[in-house]
Amino acid sequence: MTRPRRVAVAAHPSLPDALAEAEQVCDYFNQAGIETIKGESLHDADLQRMAADGALDALLALGGDGTMLRAGRLCAPLGVPVLGINVGRFGFLAEVQRGEWQELLPRFLAGDFWLEERMLLDVEHRRAQKTLGKWTALNEAVVCRGRFVRPLTLHAFVDGYRLASYVADGLIAATPTGSTAYALAAGGPILPPELRNILIIPVAPHLSVDRAIILPQGAAVTIRADTTYEAALSVDGQPPEGVLDGDEVSVTVADFTASFIRFQDPGYFYHNITRYMEQNPVTGIENGR
Fold it and tell me: Among residues 187, 195, 156, which one has the least CA distance to residue 173?
């Protein structure tokens, strides 16, 4: 890897520690002679414009997993790799933990890292053949019940063929990255991040198919709502969109991938998932204690 010439640094705006750490990271790059663009957040217009213009060699994102999801969605279509520095709670997607960047950034400047490619999803919401919205997901798309505590009937189709009908609180279509997020909480399997398969798993199924299904690479999924009251669509935990009876949500693999900068060996994923499941950093409580 070549030495980066221009990098951007963005932090979660609601985390004071992230903003303070971002200032220190920018100072480090400036002292190393690297042109640095500091964005107040990933929504910073100048930062987004420079990324779109191909003017960035990398983006450093300081925050938690939500920040990494936003950074991945922003940078993936532009081919800009992301280095995550965790100053949030969970930080499973981030490569650098709090206080480690002083040790690892010299390796970044020396090009001593590798790029991990992770698939994304293209998600489209349709009503009566009209497109209501399009999104890109790094974790998952979820069609779920709304304000009423009643199960939904959801029909899933793969490449135009009926897969199954579900009576459940919701249905998740997840990437391998998302297999360790909401899908894992719903009892789904863990998929290695380098796979390019879509995972389908129901949430709280009632007298219907209760198993996760891993679809072959390249498969396209359509979820059709069969409901007399409003449901919701949420993509990567973003604000939900209303889903009505007969609405369809299509999920396909995106043409581009998210590139994450890694210093650890390629087997890091298996070490980390074991460590995070033995000690949940969200609660700060170790299992069994």
Answer: 156
